[in-house]
Amino acid sequence: IVLRTVSYGEADLIVTHLTTDFGIVKTFAKSPRKIRSRFGSSLEPLTLSRISFWGKEDTALPRLTQSDIIHPFHSIRSSFQCFLRLSEIVELTLNFVAERDSNRGVYSLLKETLYAVEKEPGSILLLLHYKLKLLELCGYLPRLHGCGRCGKTGDMFYLAHGTVLCGKCSAEHGSFVALSPAVISLSMNLLGWNYSKINRIKPSGKLVGELSALLDEHVKYILEKNLKTKTFKSV
Fold it and tell me: CB burial class (10 A; 0-12, 13-18, 19+) of residue 112?
């Protein structure tokens, strides 16, 4: 799956793919920006392709030799708002998945999310589901369903600890974000349900906004920076 392309010289590209066997891989594509390029449109962002690349095992930038489209996801790219929302989860993926670290779970998650968004392009819940599952697969899922120290029910989320703490365990642990039971329930449902059921959930815009804001703050704390896509969307 093409995550990103960067121009190199007059006609070349450096292409970042998420692959099944090698995780995130950057490759050098010779002359794909020429009119008669053999790569055609297979290097467009979010395109699902079958690729071949060549280079020594420790080569930092192997050469892309073949790229055949399996599914183009053209309708996603043709909608600016849809593409912008998906650009955020692509940036998250690039930040949380290490290069050359195979993670079939993340690959399958992104692929299935793209197919689901193609059918339901306006679904914000699909993107929330992706964020939660990505964080879970990469070991950064915020603990919301119980106190991270004793397991008891709690509703105060501490960014510095990445978990909810109950009243007893939270003494002198600094600032927190108060969570409603509905937000905790929504996050658990999104984590546990498959794509066919996600859009059956009908949360209020306020509830979706509360969970989105929590995840944004959690990600910002982990990465120690704002996502570029968030900055762009706020302009």
Answer: middle
pTM over 0.85: yes
The SS3 of residue 53 is strand
Question: Considering only CA atoms, which of 231, 146, 137 is closest in space to residue 188?
Answer: 146
- Angstrom distance (rounded) from CA 3 to CA 27: 12
- H or E element in which residue 198 lies: helix 195-198
Q: Would you write out the chain's pLDDT as a tens digit for each of its 235 residues?
A: 999 999 988 889 999 999 999 999 999 998 877 756 778 889 999 999 999 999 887 788 999 999 999 999 999 999 999 999 999 999 999 999 999 888 999 999 999 999 999 999 999 999 999 999 999 999 999 999 899 999 998 889 999 999 999 888 887 667 888 999 999 999 999 999 888 889 888 999 999 999 999 999 999 999 999 999 877 654 4
Token couple for 197: 């059921």
**Nearest-CA neighbor of 39 among 74, 23, 63?**
63
Contact status, residue 160 vs residue 221, Cβ threshold 8 Å: yes
Please tell me what DSSP assigns to residue 100: T
